[in-house]
Amino acid sequence: MTSAEPVTEPEVAPPARRTPVQRVLTAAGLVLVLAGVSVLAWVGWETWGTNVVAHRRQAEAVTSLREEWQRGGSTVRVEAGVATAIVRIPRFGKSYEIPILEGTSDAVLASGFGHFDGSAEPGEVGNFALAGHRVTHGEPLRDMPSLQPGDEVVSRPVRLPTPMCSTPAATTSSSRSPPPG
């Protein structure tokens, strides 16, 4: 064998062109993957992102209310509305403080508890009704199942009675009354 013989490389066939069906299936697969990633991002935002934003808004409202009270005022306007009080529930921990804002819009509930329009004010005779999220948006009611009858719910500047804590819905009992009729 001599080194003068030319070396030939095997011929490589050009890549096959994709058929229209293969192109449509590839595009559909990419769209589905992007949709799945988008859904996962949205779930992540709802689960964790809204909590971060809500905790910041709640802390700002609590700080603003305290500063206003020191100046002799009673309410303060924050981004989501008018903050009127701070709720503390000792069973939820020493640092648990959630602002009460007037109304029940999405923006209000993303910033603390919402006080239902038309319900009694704190300390007044009648039903004082609040709304809040149990999951997402700061989770102010995440630990609600741990409330026991007689637990304190304190609203600054007014201490609230806690009739809601003595109702069967707030106890850990699983017994239920049959529906009437």
Report on the architecture of this protein.
There is one protein chain. The protein has 2 helices and 7 strands. It has 181 residues and is an alpha+beta fold. It has one domain: Sortase (Sortase, Chain: A). Strands 1, 2, 3, 4, 5, 6 and 7 form a 7-stranded mixed β-sheet that branches. The longest helix is centred in the first third of the chain and has 51 residues. The C terminus is likely disordered.
Which helices and strands appear, and what pairs or packs with what?
Blueprint: H1 20-70, E1 76-78, E2 81-88, E3 98-102, H2 106-109, E4 113-115, E5 130-131, E6 153-156, E7 159-160
Parallel strand pairs: 3-4
Antiparallel strand pairs: 1-2, 2-3, 2-6, 4-5, 6-7
Primary descriptors:
181 residues, alpha+beta, Sortase, Chain: A, 2 helices, 30% helix, 15% strand, rod-shaped
